[in-house]
Amino acid sequence: METHTASPAGGLDPLLSLEELAEYLGVPVRTIYDWRTDGKGPCGVRVGKHVKFFVSDVREWLARQRESAPGRPAEGR
């Protein structure tokens, strides 16, 4: 997965903490840890002892999780 470090406006891409990501997705923090262990969640970035997530990476990951409409095959399958 390609990681983006700059936003279209030329500034830095905002980062989310594990807690912020879990709150945004409406899942427990433990689920984020489990996804990381299983290689299923969005790509994370280590900042010292903390794991952060580029907002752009989360958006890209969410787009890949989108299900097809009922009765229609998923794109790329």
TrEMBL record:
One of its GO terms (molecular function) is DNA binding. Residues 15-66 form the Helix-turn-helix domain. Signal peptide: none annotated. Gene3D superfamilies: Winged helix-like DNA-binding domain superfamily/Winged helix DNA-binding domain. InterPro entries: DNA-bd_dom_put_sf (IPR009061), HTH_17 (IPR041657), SinI_DNA-bd (IPR010093), WH-like_DNA-bd_sf (IPR036388). Pfam families: HTH_17 (PF12728). This is AlpA family transcriptional regulator. It comes from Myceligenerans xiligouense.
